[in-house]
Amino acid sequence: MELFKHNGAARATDPKTSKDAAKMSSRERVTAKMRLLKAYDEYGHICDEHAGNLAGVKGAHKRISELLKEGYLKHVGEERGVNGTDVRLCGLTPDGEELAEQLKVDLKAQVIDQSSKIEEVMDMIEGVVNQFGEVMDSMHQAQRLPGGASMTLEEWVNREQKNIDKAMQSLDRLEGLIHER
Question: Are 3 and 106 in contact (CB under 8 A)?
Answer without folding.
Answer: no
